[in-house]
Amino acid sequence: LFVDQPLGPGQPVALNGDQAHYLFSVMRLSRGAAVLLFNGRDGEWRAVVAEAGKRAGILTCETQTAPLRLPPDLWLLFAPIKKARTDFIVEKAAEMGAARILPVQTRYTNADRIRQDRLQAHAVEAAEQCGGTFVPEVAELQPLDRLLDRWPAERRILWCDEHQAGQPVTLATLTALPAGPWAILIGPEGGFAAPEQARLAGLPQVVQASLGPRILRADTAAVAALTLWQIAQGD
Ligand code: SAM
């Protein structure tokens, strides 16, 4: 269970209404039952139920069961699409171990705002589901141009570019990617506009990549790119 509170030996953890409902009404836990907790910072902890109420409760942390496992330093930049598909991208990126998820607004991005809190909650659920101890941050929607204006010199960008489709992508090419911080960039359904393509192509940090011979939908492309990167980096 994810709790946004410090975890440590003997540390009391207060549950909110939803958490109490889930543990005591849905899971039917009672006093003395053990629960595994994580907060994205302190690893995983075994805690026991000290007080169980209908809409509140207290757990007491006992021992750490796993240290914090940080994912590789990989960001996912993607242009938000329809709500359900955007949710899917965030969920899968969190499962696949992206360290940060950055929705970006491009010329052909249909969404002009996102529910950042809802997407962050999806990232938490995904981390819970796959037994992670880390939750990636989902950033607010920001213009791609502005993000590139202050892009860190050392972070490379794997630009998934459908115009490269059909170019051979081999594991050998990907395993030759230099180590270090990376970002994967996935465009919107309409692809990148010509000025965006020109800007990306001129950046020294950018590596253009094909995801195979077919034009994939953006959500499929995000999962394919994360998978290939993970295989290549072995992380
Ligand atoms: N509007 C474009 C078109 O019809 O040619 C398609 C855009 S595609 C649906 C959305 C995004 O997925 C692209 O901007 C790219 O980042 C990624 N993508 C899809 N297929 C790809 C491929 N075969 N290779 C690399 N990137 C791909």
From TrEMBL:
Which keywords accompany this UniProt record? Cytoplasm, Methyltransferase, rRNA processing, S-adenosyl-L-methionine, Transferase
Q: What does this protein do?
A: Specifically methylates the N3 position of the uracil ring of uridine 1498 (m3U1498) in 16S rRNA. Acts on the fully assembled 30S ribosomal subunit.
Q: Which Enzyme Commission number(s) are listed?
A: 2.1.1.193
- CC annotations in GO: cytoplasm
Subcellular location, principal? cytoplasm
One GO BP annotation of this record: rRNA base methylation
Which reactions appear under catalytic activity for this entry? uridine(1498) in 16S rRNA + S-adenosyl-L-methionine = N(3)-methyluridine(1498) in 16S rRNA + S-adenosyl-L-homocysteine + H(+)
Name all Ribosomal RNA small subunit methyltransferase E PUA-like domain ranges: 15-56
User: Where does the record place the Ribosomal RNA small subunit methyltransferase E methyltransferase domain?
Assistant: 71-230
Entries under CDD domains matching the protein? RsmE-like (cd18084)
**Known InterPro entries for this protein?**
Alpha/beta_knot_MTases, PUA-like_sf, RsmE, RsmE_MTase_dom, RsmE_PUA-like, tRNA_m1G_MTases_N
**What molecular function does GO assign, one term?**
rRNA (uridine-N3-)-methyltransferase activity
Q: Which Gene3D superfamilies match?
A: 3.40.1280.10, Hypothetical PUA domain-like, domain 1
What is the protein's given name?
Ribosomal RNA small subunit methyltransferase E
Q: Which domain of life is it from?
A: Bacteria
Q: Which family does it belong to?
A: Belongs to the RNA methyltransferase RsmE family.
